[in-house]
Design goal:
single chain; alpha+beta; 3-stranded antiparallel β-sheet; 2 helices
């Protein structure tokens, strides 16, 4: 697909898109958006999202052939990428819940042991 084809006067109209993603998924988005006709125009660190995010700036030719189909596939990719993020977060949730439960039970045994010693001395 030739996205840099020049017009009669040499002008190419571009459309722009900014995508803020986790820095761990930066390579996935950079590689995948290239398949939808987008060219990486630069990266930026967003101020409001946090330290673990990056804003990717893309551009593509407005006159790209098959734009409707590319947009549909791009939406499908975004849905799948969000599902991957959700599954990655769920991996850590189960471990966190188990750690919290064990911690609360251990704290309960510690408090019980202290009360048993204190009341035995009285």
């Amino acid at each position: 697909m030739n996205t840099t084809a020049t017009r009669e006067n040499g002008f190419i109209g571009y459309e722009y898109k900014d995508v803020t993603v986790s820095s761990s998924l930066e390579a996935l988005y950079t590689d995948s958006y290239g398949n939808f006709g987008w060219q990486l125009d630069g990266t930026d660190a967003p101020l409001s999202v946090g330290l673990n995010a990056v804003t990717l700036k893309f551009k593509r030719d407005r006159k790209i052939p098959g734009k409707a189909e590319l947009s549909r596939l791009e939406r499908q990719f975004n849905t799948c990428a969000n599902e991957v993020l959700k599954l990655e977060r769920e991996k850590g949730i189960a471990a966190s819940v188990a750690a919290y439960v064990i911690g609360v039970v251990g704290a309960g045994f510690t408090v019980g042991g202290i009360f048993a010693c204190v009341f035995r001395l009285m």
